[in-house]
Amino acid sequence: MKRYEDTALTAEERAEALVAEMTVEEAASQLRYDAPAIPRLGIPAYNWWNEALHGVARSGTATVFPQAIGLAAMFDTDTLKTAAEIVSTEARAKYNGYQKRGDTGIYKGLTFWSPNINIFRDPRWGRGHETYGEDPYLTAECGKAYVEGLQGNGPVLRAAACAKHFAVHSGPENMRHSFDAVIGKKDLYETYLPAFEALVRDAHVEGIMGAYNRVNGEPACASPALQEILREWGFDGYFVSDCGAISDFHAFHHITANAVDSAAIALKNGCDVNCGGCYAQILTAYEEGLVSEDDIRRACVHLMRTRIRLGMFDGGTEYDDIPYSVVACDDHKDIAWQCALESMVLLKNNGILPLDEEKISTIAVIGPNANSRTALEGNYMGTADRYITFLEGIQDRFPGRVITAPGAHLYKLRSENCNNDGDHDRLAEALEAAVCADVVIACVGLDASIEGEEGDASNEYAAGDKRSLLLPESQRVLLRALKETGKPLIVLCAAGSAINTEIDADALLHVWYPGQMGGEAAASILFGDFAPSGKLPVTFYEDTEKLPDFTDYSMKNRTYRYTQDNILYPFGYGLTYGTVLVKALSYENGIASVTVQNPGDVRCDDVIELYLHDNAPCAVPYYSLCGFARISLAPGQEKTVAVEIPTTAFLSVDEDGIRAVRGTQYTLYAGTHQPDAKSEALTGTKCLSFTINF
Question: Fewer CB within 10 Å: N-end or C-end of the chain?
């Protein structure tokens, strides 16, 4: 037995032994994302690039869960972890099949470049829907749950997660290849790094992906400062560049002269594997003395260590018998439906919801997202075996007549370019449908073709970013016209970010990109089979013109922790059917006890949120989320829930980035929303508070 085959040794020891058997040329070849085989050592070809943001992505059929921002809106880490377990189970099933047939191509491996735990600091950022929102604590809790679900807790990783994009990365998309994110230490350690630290220290995430941008002058994929932070945290996985990021060094950042120089500084500064083509120049860099053999072997050890942890050289793992038949099975789709149901956020309701099907005979379902599969998907997605659109979900659920019309193109002013009718050529049809109905459900919003990553978007928006919070003009015209009919109007908005629909509708349900079961889940809420219970993981602002400059990475006047101005709907806000009252709050030895009651006659599903205000001078101006618990209450039921408050919640960060307990008095708040005036006015309920003295 070769030393690297000895499973009694640590992964580190085995990796070192394996790399010692390689020539320097062989070791260098393994630093490419599409690593070739080394037959004499029994190492098969391996492609590191795979995606699993909300389901196994880009690899054919898979269960498609809600987009990440929707998963965050659940405020339910247990269900999120279950979803991630399903993702990695399907990943293993597909991997097993690919291996049997000798397919080692892209999107066929077990190293998933997910989750995206960047902070959604600005609502204009097109990729924000890939994240878990604006709050560091919520992002960390969701990220940990997803990593733990993907990787499992066995001696062999079920799959290898990767936290991205490290660090300080959230747009603008059209500048990402050349942008320098200038950030102070307070914002860095208070906002941008905590989730990454939690995933490294607590969840033991196997991979870290560097960002495209520079951070305070250093390219994120070759940053001594960022690598030192990872070492301080004890990170012992692999580090990968974002795709093409190393070529940005010479092409856009202009900190190197050519690909050889770029590959050299990336390798010497901690980037183990290159998604892109620059590491084809590693041997040239070695021959020119720009990198050493030790540099090459160190990176290769990190990569072999991950493959060993995945059981790739053990002759078999506990996951080898997972059959392909589990992919997109009914049990998995049931969890996708549950996630969609819990993610949807009811922003407004004048009493029209839930719909009473005995009092209506005809519903008009109108809008460009009504029958759109794309509006269910988000980006970085797999292919569902079946999608249920919003129209189909309503048709399946409602026993009466459902009439439909798109009413408008998603963003173009006309749908048929060959006509002579001018703009808004589908509006008349929609209005005729509306006047025939008892109630109108307008399915509007965006999709990942106009809100997403640079290169994916192809419309009037800026490289995937949004220029404003308004709907495209085609949909704004449609909504205004539907409102003028006088028919009861419910707006169902599918979007991955903050939207100001402008219209004073009777009800507004924000459904994100809810995955393959989104239409069924939406119908279940509309007709009262289940109560809405999602909460906003981001602030919905009124107007982008009142926001700081998009390129300003300071947190001043951004997110609920630093502003209460320009707010349309607050972070943490979301209505349910009925009312949950918080009756009592206490705190002792790190545990908050919250007594809640449902005084009404309908079942209530909701989320208890806990916030902490610190009186230290360097604390955030308002308060920070420090705990949450999902609850379900029968009519008249009262219960007490215990929520652990992490010790990190009591830390404040000064201008030098030093975290410490500085406060002498803390105020703990508990409610179904933030303790702000806007949330209280929208819900008609107040939070309770409890004083903690240090």
Answer: N
Q: What is the pLDDT of residues 37-63, one digit of tens each?
A: 999 999 999 999 999 999 999 999 999
Strand partners, 638: 597
Could you list the active site residues? 242
Whole-angstrom Cα distance, residue 577 to residue 531? 6
167: preceding bond cis by omega (within 30 degrees):
yes
SS3 (DSSP) at 465: strand
How far apart (Å, rounded) are the C-alpha atoms in residues 50 and 109? Answer: 6
Domains of the chain: 3-326 (3.20.20.300), 344-538 (3.40.50.1700), 581-693 (2.60.40.10)
| 386: CB partners within 8 A, 6+ apart | 516
> Which among 328, 323, 300 is positioned nearest to 86, based on CA atoms?
328
Contact residues for 415 (Cβ-Cβ < 8 A; gap 6+): 406, 408, 409, 425, 426
3-class state of residue 55 by DSSP: coil
What whole-number distance in Å separates Cα of residue 116 and Cα of residue 132? 8
What is the per-residue pLDDT across 308-365, written as a single tens digit (0 to 9) for each? 999 999 999 999 999 999 999 999 999 999 999 999 999 999 999 999 999 999 999 9
Cβ within 8 Å of residue 694, ≥6 positions away: 650, 661, 663, 664, 665, 666
- Say if residue 484 is exposed, middle or buried (CB neighbours under 10 Å; 0-12, 13-18, 19+): exposed
Per-residue tokens: 549? 């400059």
Q: Which residues contact 482 (CB under 8 A, 6 or more apart)?
A: 366, 407, 430, 431, 434, 440, 442, 489
- The answer, yes or no, to whether the previous bond of 332 is cis (omega within 30 of 0) is no
Q: Which two tokens stand for residue 678?
A: 């806007």
The rounded Cα 223 to chain-centroid distance in angstroms is 25
